[in-house]
Amino acid sequence: MNGELAIDVRGMTKRFGDRTVVNDIALQVRTGEIYGFLGPNGSGKTTFIRMLCGLLRADAGSGTCLGHDVITESEIIKRQVGYMTQRFSFWEDLSIAENLDFVARMYDVKNRREAVQRSLEQLGLAGRQKQLAGELSGGWKQRLALAACLIHQPKLLLLDEPTAGVDPKARRDFWEQIHILAGEGLTFLIHHALHG
Ligand SMILES: Nc1ncnc2c1ncn2[C@@H]1O[C@H](COP(=O)(O)OP(=O)(O)OP(=O)(O)O)[C@@H](O)[C@H]1O
């Protein structure tokens, strides 16, 4: 969006025992970019992303993620990352707003009421906030999952095969939403395995 680099790393390498799983990888991703990681199962995508986000220590490599050193400032980076898994789950008998409030508590968000409201509005959920999560269609559940990832105002979002098993209309709506958020300055890393 503004040309700044959200990710700027080089030489990233990770070994498990005598096996090199990530070998000398460089990556630059601009702020507001939606970047897709494609590769066969086991090719090292998760390992590389975990090193970027401060969840795993690299054996070699250097650079920055969100302006912070990936080796020495991993704690700061971690707090600015959000993660949406394929298998998100909610309290089905709690409302959308109650579920978001629960997530805000987990993240120890300071002004929870404001944070919940912001996430609801960001994802177009404000009109449905009292609806029970268990009554939502797949597409709306996914929206709620995205709202939950945004509650602590991350700058980088990791999405793991976000539209696997989602119907075409919900998939289109989802990507539209992702593009809107990217336009607001959020950076996305999309993790996608190439099956078969
Ligand atoms: N903590 C670990 N200890 C040992 N080996 C590991 C560890 N984490 C991952 N691996 C191995 O490293 C390789 C790369 O795994 P990784 O999960 O990064 O691949 P991936 O491309 O994300 O796969 P997928 O598409 O299935 O998610 C795999 O062979 C995996 O078994």
TrEMBL record:
Query: Which keywords appear in this protein's UniProt record, sorted alphabetically?
Result: ATP-binding, Nucleotide-binding
Lineage per the UniProt record? Bacteria, Pseudomonadati, Verrucomicrobiota, Spartobacteria, Chthoniobacterales
Question: This protein is called what?
Answer: ABC transporter-related protein
Taxonomic superkingdom: Bacteria
| The keyword NADP is assigned to this record | no
Q: Give every ABC transporter domain span.
A: 7-194
A GO term for molecular function: ATP binding
- The organism is Chthoniobacter flavus Ellin428
Record's PROSITE patterns? Answer: ABC_TRANSPORTER_1, ABC_TRANSPORTER_2
